[in-house]
Amino acid sequence: MTHRHARSTPPETPDRTEALLSSLRRKRSEVAERFSPRRLNGCRPADVRSVLMIVSASRSGSSVLHYLLARLPGVVSLNGEDSVFTRLHGLGWAKSTDDSDFIAPEDAAALRVAPSIAEDILLDSGELASHAPADKHLRENYLADSVQRLLLQFPQADASPDKLLQACTAALGDRAPNQPGFSAADYWRLALERLHGAGLDARLGYYDLRGSDPAADFPNRGNSLPPPFSNICLEEPPFVVPQPRRLPDPKELEHKTLLLKSSSDCYRLWLIRRLFPNARFKFVVLARNPAAAINGLMDGWLSDGFYSQNLGHIAALDVQGYSRDDRPWTRQWWNFDLPPGWAQVRTRPLEEVCARQWLSANQHILSGIRSGLIEERLDVRYESFLEPRSLAGTLSAIGRFAGLTGDPTASVGCIPPVMSVTPPAPQKWRKRRDLLAALVQDGEIAALAREFGYAPERWESWA
């Protein structure tokens, strides 16, 4: 296996991109057929009867909420975000400045691949092993899930599924993935060491291990890392570590809830609803005040993670405060979701880019509410996560709304800082107060903040 970083390489052409994606889809099918033929357990997308979807702009707390809800019995969740599978099937790739994460309703290409996206989501899904009944196939399925995840994380590596499986099998050893005390983080460290020795540039610095090991560190504190891929990104770093999961059989699945989360889903709500035609959808609309969310986006752009699309072939980035000649990838790589109109801010200060991301995502969420795409919903604020008592109340409300079993507050006292660049704390945004002041009082942002319950005239008191 070989993999090299391309700091300012020419991008893939559309034909080469599709050829690469087609090869990855074939490899994933091979892994499913050879390594884990029982992974789907007989389930089809039509067997899903309940979907709980977290809808939010980036940096609004969806990762930590997903972490907590996925640990409840009866919840079927993914290892990562569902958006990786829309990309895998050719959707959402920017080919011009007019392209973005938005997928137009009834888009023919999206309709054509929707069944395959839904099946890939199920192939990645399951109840966490700690809540699932004993399963004699858990080990083989977990190893296959590990291979599938590596294929998504390093799409341009010349990675043989057999060699990936060999490294993961050796790293797992004779440990059972569902035994008490099993550490997915320790297993993954060993797997990455073996893969690195075999030529795959799979460094720990590309991972946020804290969901598996709260003592782990992120972002990387050493030398800055370029993106872990040349041109094609499916899963945005920091990468997740796969957890052992079991997909229920079709009869069981009818009584489970599939949990979905991806910040770019706000641009394609109609498509997500099409994936599971027999499901009742419920939505948690998660909001965060614009000062805190924009600040969080800025922190993310300036970390060694959250790269999403290489846009250098369309229009070079000259984002003030981000793009630097000594980090040439910052003139190519966008971070987080790609909103419509992104090209208009590609040479603007970073705070304006992040403000556009917050504004656009929340405008599309509000549009989804008004159009009825987001129908049954519970409105939640990120600020309620900052104090254990209010977080417990919020989780209890979500549990009642979604009809979840178990105690959703059980993990409140031991939450790792999932996908966060700095530890959660109130008013972290004040370090950029002067930069943010004019933005959050801007007409469009102020009006939208008010729609979500944040009074612009009291912005200095926002958490």
Q: What is the CA-based Rg, rounded? A: 21 Å
Number of helices, counting only DSSP H or I runs of 4 residues or more = 14
Please report the distance between the alpha carbons of the first and last residues: 47 Å
The number of domains is: 1
Secondary-structure element series:
HEHEHHEHHHEHEHEHEEHEHHH
* Average pLDDT level: 91
Tell me how many strands there are: 9
List the helices and strands and how they pair.
Elements: H1 14-35, E1 50-55, H2 62-69, E2 75-78, H3 83-88, H4 108-123, E3 125-128, H5 138-153, H6 161-172, H7 184-197, E4 245-246, H8 250-253, E5 257-261, H9 269-275, E6 280-287, H10 290-301, E7 307-310, E8 333-335, H11 350-371, E9 377-381, H12 388-402, H13 433-440, H14 443-451
Parallel strand pairs: 1-5, 1-6, 2-5, 6-9
Antiparallel strand pairs: 2-3, 3-4, 7-8
Question: What does this entry look like structurally?
Answer:
The chain is an alpha/beta fold and 463 residues long. The protein has one domain (14-461). Helix content is 37%, strand content 9%. It contains 14 helices and 9 strands. The protein has helices spanning 14-35, 62-69, 83-88, 108-123, 138-153, 161-172, 184-197, 250-253, 269-275, 290-301, 350-371, 388-402, 433-440, 443-451, and strands at residues 50-55, 75-78, 125-128, 245-246, 257-261, 280-287, 307-310, 333-335, 377-381. The strands form 2 sheets. The chain has a 7-stranded mixed beta sheet with strand order 4-3-2-5-1-6-9. The protein has a two-stranded antiparallel sheet with strand order 7-8. Helix 5 crosses helix 6 and helix 10 crosses helix 11. 48% of the residues are buried.
